[in-house]
TrEMBL record:
Transmembrane segments: none
Function: Catalyzes the condensation of isopentenyl diphosphate (IPP) with allylic pyrophosphates generating different type of terpenoids.
Pfam families tied to this protein: Prenyltransf
Active-site residues, Swiss-Prot/TrEMBL: D33, N82
Protein name per its UniProtKB record: Isoprenyl transferase
Cofactor note: Binds 2 magnesium ions per subunit.
Underlying gene: uppS
GO BP annotations listed: polyprenol biosynthetic process
Keyword line: Magnesium, Metal-binding, Transferase
GO cellular component, one term: plasma membrane
Amino acid sequence: MSVRDLVYKLYERRLERKLSPAQIPRHVGVIVDGNRRWARAMGLDDVSRGHQKGADKISELLVWCREAGVEYVTLWLLSTDNLTRDRSELEPLLQVIEGLVRNLVEQGWHIKPMGSLDLLPDHTARVLKQAKETTSHRPGLIVNVAVGYGGRREIADAVRSLLQEQASKGASIEELVEVLDVEHIAEHLYTRGLPDPDLVIRTSGEQRLSGFLLWQSAHSEFYFCEAYWPDFRRVDFLRALRSYAARHRRYGS
């Protein structure tokens, strides 16, 4: 172990000692950003190698979350906007995501896909649906895998689902308007049944949500990290937890 690694290990232990179990977020959302830029910074012509490096990092993150006591993790792997990328880049990225999901299933995680699966190629959608079916009984940390996800589309899908549900019961638009509240919409989101994220982490230095969990993040705390996602370290994760623990959550003010 190098001197630098030893220093980081000691720093990690110091951060861990300062974290109280009562201050750990139940639900952490992660925007895994910067894979392409990491590949270019490393002088790699094939950006899919950056995506693969980022996929490898996810298994580490989930172990860190489980060790810390986090109960839910939502990973944004592919946005609806990403689906418009050139086919030469999109297809390798989808292959990386499919491989990642299969690995997470083999590693024993409880996987819940979220997003507009109907927009994805059939083979990618099948991998995600099979992961859900195979792991639905597993206890412990729940991993939401957001693929083909966009916050605005999620809200539109929720409203559409709500209207269809009410129409099947014979309710009119006028009757729905009289009783509609935020909980009705929340019950039709991709994350229905799960708590909203307490902490949202974004890597690569960008300080925006880009449509990630627009509805659910209304009261979330945010942590922006300069590192590209493949370079995200356990010490960065612990710093995010420390930052979250230091904040006084006021919910709506």
